[in-house]
Amino acid sequence: MGPQDGNYPLGMRTQDLRDFTRSPLRSRLEAALLAQAAQAEPAEVVRRKAEVIGGMSGTVMEIGPGPGTNMRYYAPGTRVLAVEPNPAMHPRLQAQAAAHDIELSVMSCHAEQTPLADASVDGVVGTLVLCGVDRPADVVAEVRRVMRPGSHYLVYEHVKAPTGTLTRRGQRLLWGPHRWLFNGCEVDRDTGVLLQSVGFAELDVQHIDAGLATAHTRTRIMGVATR
Prior knowledge:
By secondary structure, the protein is an alpha/beta fold. 33% of the residues lie in helices and 22% in strands. The protein is built from seven helices and seven strands.
């Protein structure tokens, strides 16, 4: 677990880290790093994304799409409602949507509370986003609220590595710098436990080892929750 006394790197408080207007340079750097990282996703993750996202149709909400990593997986013509509060991500996101013939609408709100009606979307995608929000439980509750019965939520997240492992030590050591660079991202949350507590009709989650090259972020989960 990270610091508990509120003393964050460079004097930034938690709410400051997600106020994207305070440090536009850091936000642009984050967008570039995320776009680069997307080119080296594990093969199993790529396969699963293509299977689940590619099978979605109608209107899909994607929370935290960042620079548009997932646009390549949607079927052409899919309507995507993108909840992305970081304006530095928008140009790349829009370019990726256009390149893959996606009907994109960008909402600059935070994912804890969206303007969407109950049971109004045919699917939800959220990849590497619950690690970087203020209130992940509220985000997942909001996801479930807007999903139509029987629809799917694809989730792919950084999570806490097992105690005593080298990866866990790396998470502790790099918690502060990583959190600052990636606008509040915390890679050591128990997101699997959170997903189990929300009340989805079905939840199928598996652990993913992203490989040694991903260092302290290698421990992840991926799965599908059904409303």
